[in-house]
Amino acid sequence: MQMSDIRNPDERKKLIWAGVLGMLAILLLWWTFFGFGGNSTRTTPRANSQPTPSAVTRTTGNKVPPSAVDVTAGLLDQLRPVNSEFASVSVPEARRNIFVYYEPPTKPVAVASVPTPTPTPTPPVLLASISPANVYARTGDFTLEISGDKFTPQMRVVVDNSEVPTRYLGPQQVSATVAAAVIANPGARQVMLRSPDGKLYSNAATLNIAAPPTPNYSYVGIIGTVHHIDTAILQDKGSKETLNVQRGDLLGGRFRVTSISEKELVLVDTNLKVKHSLPMSNQGEKGNPLQRPTPRVDSEDDEP
Length: 304
Description:
Blueprint: H1 9-33, E1 41-43, E2 57-59, H2 68-78, E3 126-131, E4 134-136, E5 142-149, E6 156-159, E7 162-164, E8 166-170, E9 173-178, E10 187-194, E11 205-210, E12 217-224, E13 229-236, E14 242-245, E15 250-251, E16 255-260, E17 264-269, E18 275-279, H3 282-285
Parallel strand pairs: 4-11
Antiparallel strand pairs: 1-2, 3-5, 5-9, 6-7, 6-10, 8-9, 10-11, 12-13, 13-14, 15-16, 16-17, 17-18
């Protein structure tokens, strides 16, 4: 079989026509067996406002698209005039300020940053407790026992930044002698341990110093001579009862009379060994406290 030369124009035209005829044959066979869109339908155009020729179009196969005139007529039929009334809102005219002047923007206030405080380091030595933790003022010297951990022989007990004599008993126990002058006045004292170079120190403990109990009496008078005063007159501040006392008497089971004079009465607390002075009150100074009261004697002429 002789091959056709596609470079020849005549042969090329033959090939093109052969391809076109083949495609038409394929389309014809497809339409014969399968069809192109189903059964034929009868369409009736919509009645429009404009007169159009009435005609019934029978189509077979594909639907014929409506013309531009039909589409435009349908859209115009759906349009309706709309009457809208917009009410005008009356707004009062803003008042104008003729004295407008430039106001500079407010400068932002710089907030001072507070530095974070440095945490207090943990003391290298532990002070756990002190005994006694409560004492009375104006009492004598006493021994303070301190318990803790990591004590060294070089460490000293410090009471309100004043070193006191210290005795090292071990790494967990020391004792100190606190003088009476340290606790002369009521208040709180800070107790801690510290080495001479300050490298070793402990946390602080509080030593509470309370005021000693005072006698609840007033010194109102005395009975005796100028050279020999042996009896004092006292008055209870609570019950207002008067009583006579002499040297050596014990008041309230606690306070002993040690001295009686024209100016004061001296009592000593037998428990705490604390001395209390009661000055002569104004009530006793109005009369002559050195004169013994003269008892009233009924006269013979007095009628019963």
